[in-house]
Amino acid sequence: MSPDARTTVVMITHNRRDQLLRSLDRLAALPEEPPVIVVDNASTDGTPQAVAAHHPRTVVLAPGRNLGAPGRTLGVRRARTPYVAFSDDDSWWEPGSLRRAADILDRHERLGLIATRIHVGPDAEPDPLNDVLASSPLDPAGDLPGPQVLGFLACAAVARRQAFLEAGGYHPLLFLGGEETLLAYDLAARGWGVCHCPDVVAVHSPTGGVRPGRPAVQLRNAALTSWLRRPLPVALRHTRELVRAARRDPDARAALRQMFRRLPTALRERRPLPPAVEAAARRLDA
C-alpha cells in the first residue's frame, strides 16, 4: 500500500513520555505514513527531547504551558493537509483507516468530522460508545455517509481541517474532559456534518485507570456546555441537577464549585444553537 499524504495526525501529551513513544511507533508503522504533530502540554519528563531522538520526523510544538484540549487546535493550525486525525498519547489508528477516512471525506463535501469505531486494549474489545453512536436517533442525511451524531471520542476522530478551524476548535474554557460535545455543536451550527463511520477504526489503549479529578471535570464541562450553547431552561435544569447531586456526591460538589468560577466567562461567550441543531440536541437529551 502506498503512502497517503491527505491526513496529519495531531496528538497532545503531558508527562507520559514512554506511552507516547509507543503510540508514535504504531503511527510510524502505518502504510499511510502520515505526518505527525505532537503538542507537548508542558511536560517535565523530557518528552520533546525523547520524540526528537526516536521520531525525528515528528513535529513537536511546545507552547510552554498546559493548554489541555485546545493544544489540538494549535496542532491543527500547524497542519498543512486537508484532513486531521486525532490521537492521544495512548491511542493510534488501524492500518488503512486513515486512507478510508480521507476517501470518505473526499466524497462528502459537507462532512466535517468522522466519529470512528473504537477498539480498546490489546484484545481490541469494542468500546461501548460504538453502539451509542451507531444507534443515534438523529435523522439520516442523504449527503452524509453514516448516522448523524453530536458526540465523539476526541482521540478517535478525523476532521476536515477547514471545518475544525471554522468551528473554533476546542474551547479553552473546558480545558480537558468531555470537551467533544461543544465542538460537535459548533460544527453542526455552521452547517458541517458530524457522523459515525464504523469502517474507520481507532485503537485506544488507556493505562492507569481514571485520572484523579476527571469525573468532576466531566460533570463541570457538561454543565458549562449547556450554559455556552443551550437555551436558558436547559442550562438551569442541568445546574439544578448538579446541585442536587452535590448533596451526596463529592465529585458533583467539586464540579459545582469549578463551574461557578467559570460561569461568568461562559455567559460572556454564550451563543445558543440554531433551532435545527437545538432540536437535534433535545432528541439526544431524551
Biggest sheet descriptor: 9 strands, mixed
Secondary-structure-based class equals alpha/beta
Rg, Cα atoms, Å: 19 Å
What order do the helices and strands follow? EHEHEHEEHEEHEHHEHHHH
Instruction: Give the count of helical stretches.
Output: 11
Distance between the termini: 45 Å
Unreliable stretches covering 5 or more consecutive residues: none
Total beta strand runs: 9
Q: Mean pLDDT across all residues, rounded?
A: 97
Helix content: 40-55%
* Beta-strand percentage range: 15-25%
Shape: globular
Task: Spell out the key features of this protein.
alpha/beta; nine-stranded mixed sheet; globular; 286 residues
Describe this structure in a few short sentences.
The protein is built from eleven helices and nine strands. The chain has about 290 residues and is of the alpha/beta class. Strands 1, 2, 3, 4, 5, 6, 7, 8 and 9 form a nine-stranded mixed β-sheet that branches.
Describe the structure.
The protein is α/β, with parallel strands linked by helices. It is built from eleven helices and nine strands. The chain has helices spanning 17-28, 47-54, 70-78, 97-107, 129-134, 161-166, 180-189, 214-229, 232-246, 250-268, 275-285; strands at 7-13, 36-40, 59-61, 83-88, 91-93, 111-120, 125-126, 157-160, 193-204. Strands 1, 2, 3, 4, 5, 6, 7, 8 and 9 form a nine-stranded mixed beta sheet that branches. Strand 6 and strand 7 (125-126) form a beta hairpin. The longest helix has 19 residues, at 250-268. 45% of the residues are buried. The mean pLDDT is 97.
